[in-house]
Write a structure and sequence with these properties.
Layout lengths: L8 H12 L5 E6 L2 E8 L2 E12 L4 H9 L1 H7 L3 E11 L2 E8 L8 E11 L4 E7 L12 E2 L1 E11 L7 E10 L6 H10 L1 H20 L24 H4 L5 H4 L13 H14 L7
Parallel strand pairs: 6-8
Antiparallel strand pairs: 1-2, 2-3, 3-10, 4-5, 5-6, 6-7, 7-9, 9-10
Helix pairs in contact: 4-8
Length: 281
C-alpha cells in the first residue's frame, strides 16, 4: 500500500490513459450504451476493470456531485455501513473511511481512502486509492480491503447536451480468503448493474438536493470545507498498516472456508445475485 501524497497532473493523465486506451483489455460485456473490459495486472491475481457508458439525462456537473456528496451517498448506497471524513489535505484532496456490507457468507469490507479530484471545465475527474493510517487500523469484524485505484472521468455527452459520458476504472483487492476466480467473474458481470444504479441515483439527485436545508458542496466551494486540515507528512500516514491477511490476524478470514469449492460457488451466487457495490467511489 502506497503512502498518502497529493495527486498531480501525471496521476490524472494516467487515469485518462486507462480510460481511453484498450490495448491488452478484453471486452467482457457490451450492453446498450455500456461496455465493460477487464485487464490482467502483473504480479496480481485480481484483474482491472473498465467501464464506458452514456448518461442521456444527466449533465456532467450532476454526476460529479453525486459521486462526491456524502449525505446523498447515504440515500442511494444500500451497501454502505459507515462513512466519514478523516481530514483534508487541500481543496482537492481528502481522506476518509468507508465500510460496506457484503452478501452472506462474506464478512463486510472497509477502506481508508484518499480521494483526489480535478475539474478542468471540459472534463471532471475523481481518483481514490487506499492509504495507511495508524489511527484507523483494521478492526474486528471487518476485512480491510485495498483499492489500488478507482477512477472516474466525466465528459459531456457526444450528442446530447443534457447528458454526459462516464469512464470508470478500478483495481481492487478485497483481501480475505476470496478466490481470485470468483472476484474476477463478479467484477465484470456487475458492471452494467452498477451503471444502472448510478444512473438512477443521478436522476434523483437534483430534486433531493433542492429539499435539503443547505446546499453545501465543499468539493466545489472550498470556503464550505469544515473537516480538519491534515498533512501527508503527518506521522499517522507514514506508518504502514498491513491488511490483516498479511500480518497474520484471523480477523481477515471470510466465512467462505471449510468445504472449499462448494462454499466458493455459494458465495459467487450470492455476490452475483445480490451485490451491486462499487464501494470505492
Amino acid at each position: 500500500m502506497k503512502m498518502a501524497r497529493i495527486a498531480d497532473d501525471e496521476d490524472f493523465y494516467r487515469l485518462k490513459q486507462f480510460i481511453e486506451e484498450h490495448k491488452n483489455w478484453t471486452l467482457e460485456v457490451s450492453k446498450g450504451d455500456t461496455k465493460v473490459w477487464t485487464k490482467p495486472v502483473d504480479a496480481c491475481n485480481f484483474k482491472m476493470v473498465k467501464i464506458h457508458s452514456l448518461f442521456e439525462d444527466c449533465e456532467p456537473d450532476v454526476l460529479f456531485d453525486v459521486l462526491h456528496d456524502p449525505d446523498y451517498r447515504k440515500v442511494w448506497d444500500s451497501h454502505m455501513l459507515d462513512s466519514f471524513e478523516i481530514g483534508v489535505f487541500n481543496v482537492n484532496n481528502d481522506v476518509g473511511y468507508y465500510a460496506m456490507s457484503c452478501p452472506p457468507p462474506l464478512k463486510p469490507r472497509d477502506f481508508i481512502l484518499q480521494r483526489s479530484w480535478l475539474d478542468t471545465g471540459e472534463e471532471q475527474m475523481l481518483i481514490s486509492r487506499s492509504v495507511p493510517h495508524k489511527d484507523f487500523p483494521p478492526k474486528k469484524g471487518y476485512v480491510r480491503a485495498t483499492s489500488y485505484i478507482t477512477g472516474f472521468v466525466i465528459r459531456p455527452h457526444p450528442r446530447n447536451p443534457k447528458g454526459c459520458s462516464l469512464g470508470y476504472v478500478a483495481h481492487c483487492d478485497p483481501q480475505g480468503k476470496l478466490p481470485s476466480w470468483l472476484v474476477n467473474k463478479v467484477t465484470h458481470t456487475l458492471g452494467p448493474r452498477m451503471i444502472s444504479d448510478l444512473k438512477k441515483a443521478a436522476q434523483g439527485y437534483p430534486a433531493w438536493k433542492s429539499q435539503q436545508s443547505n446546499n453545501r458542496k465543499p468539493w466545489r466551494f472550498p470556503d464550505q470545507i469544515t473537516a480538519q486540515r491534515v498533512s501527508v507528512f503527518d506521522h499517522c500516514f507514514q506508518s504502514q498498516v498491513l491488511p490483516e491477511n498479511l500480518n497474520g490476524s484471523s480477523n481477515n478470514l471470510d466465512i467462505i472456508t471449510g468445504r472449499g469449492r462448494k462454499r466458493e460457488k455459494l458465495a459467487f451466487k450470492a455476490l452475483e445475485s445480490r451485490s451491486k457495490s462499487y464501494t470505492t467511489l
